[in-house]
Amino acid sequence: MGQRRSGKSSIQKVVFHKMPANETLFLESTNKIVKEDITSFIDFQVWDFPGQINYFDSAYDSNMIFGDYGALIFVIDAQDDYIEALNRLHHTVTRAYKVNPDLSFEVFIHKVDALSDEYKIDTQRDIQQRITDELADYDMEHVRLNFYLTSIYDHSIFEAFSKVIQKLIPQLPTLENLLNILCANSGIEKAFLFDVNSKIYIATDSSPVDMQSYEICSDMIDVIVDISEIYGRTNSFRDDFDQSQTDTNGHTGDYGTTTETANDASSLIKLNNGMILCLRGVNRFLALVCLLRSDNFEKHGLIDYNFQCFKEAIADVFELKRRNAERMKHERMG
Ligand code: GDP
């Protein structure tokens, strides 16, 4: 949600449709709720709400609209005067919280690409302060809001969306634990489990995320997708992630992808600082991208073995989820 022209449709297009950021300049403004199904490792829906409508008006069923949500993302244009947007945010949070207290409230302070670092921090502080004060006036200081500085012109929008989605994944602690075990036993410095289609990372190990590692790992997905789209035997690594015969023959020392199925996709890039960037396909939707020192990669038989165990564990986690969902469905049907 958010005011008109705050950037909602652009975010959706850039994150879920690979639209280049500068093409969003020509997007038409939306005037009705746009619902979009995202089919991935978990299925979810993204709803884009036009800014000018009041959903708490009696014409709308706010229980239906807000009751089932996992997260409400409110987009604020940081380049514009945001006082009106803050009123709207306050109004939305107070009402939506009454309908669904489990909702997580995520505020994207958006279009920060044009702001200096100092101004970004000041803007965030100002917005955070104003909204916290307003909520306190309504005895709602216990409602937690999360703030992110975002722009479609860099990785920040993917990072923010990743954090929002991660909160909606019940298996997150298990996934993080598996990544920690994999890293500890394979000499891996940092590992991200990515959803290939959206470049959202659904989990990472517990070492701190530094922006540079995240950016380079995220860029690797683009490189591999591009290489396989141009040189792969079938259309694309991304479209056919589960069945593509991606094969960049002729690969040399620096990178190479040879897969029979994209589940087995594998690629390496040696960086000039002695690190290795390594991508492995995990299943139809997910890929593991990790950074490790090249001397640790010498024993890569062990890494291959550990990775295979990791992949089987991930399959078990999602298989369990599917079986639980089926069991619950049967129980409901009596
Ligand atoms: P909506 O009405 O909230 O869906 O807004 P749009 O997605 O149509 O975006 C309105 C304008 O903001 C478009 O011209 C976008 O190109 C621009 N825009 C969106 N995101 C960003 C951003 O991160 N940075 C900048 N500079 N412009 C953006």
Which features would summarize this protein structure in a list?
alpha+beta; GTP binding; 9 helices; 5-stranded antiparallel sheet; 41% helix; 2 domains; Rossmann fold; 19% strand; binds guanosine-5'-diphosphate; membrane; Beta-Lactamase; GTPase activity; single chain; 334 residues
List the helices and strands and how they pair.
Layout: H1 8-17, E1 34-38, E2 44-48, H2 62-67, E3 71-77, H3 83-99, E4 104-110, H4 117-137, E5 145-150, H5 156-166, H6 172-186, E6 188-195, E7 200-204, H7 211-231, E8 266-270, E9 275-281, E10 286-293, H8 294-297, H9 300-332
Helix pairs in contact: 3-4, 6-9
The structure holds guanosine-5'-diphosphate (GDP).
Would you kindly provide a written description of the structure presented here, covering whatever features stand out?
The protein has 334 residues and is α+β, with helices and mostly antiparallel strands. The chain has 2 domains: 8-168, P-loop containing nucleotide triphosphate hydrolases (Rossmann fold, 3-Layer(aba) Sandwich); 171-231 and 263-332, Beta-Lactamase. Helices cover 41% and strands 19% of the residues. It is built from 9 helices and 10 strands. It has helices at 8-17, 62-67, 83-99, 117-137, 156-166, 172-186, 211-231, 294-297, 300-332; strands spanning 34-38, 44-48, 71-77, 104-110, 145-150, 188-195, 200-204, 266-270, 275-281, 286-293. Strands 7-6-10-9-8 form a 5-stranded antiparallel β-sheet, with helices on both faces. It has a 3-stranded parallel β-sheet with strand order 3-4-5, sandwiched between helices. Strands 1-2 form a two-stranded antiparallel sheet. β6 and β7 (200-204) form a beta hairpin. The longest helix has 33 residues, at 300-332. Residues 240-261 have low confidence and may be disordered. Bound molecules: guanosine-5'-diphosphate. The site of guanosine-5'-diphosphate has 20 residues, from α1.
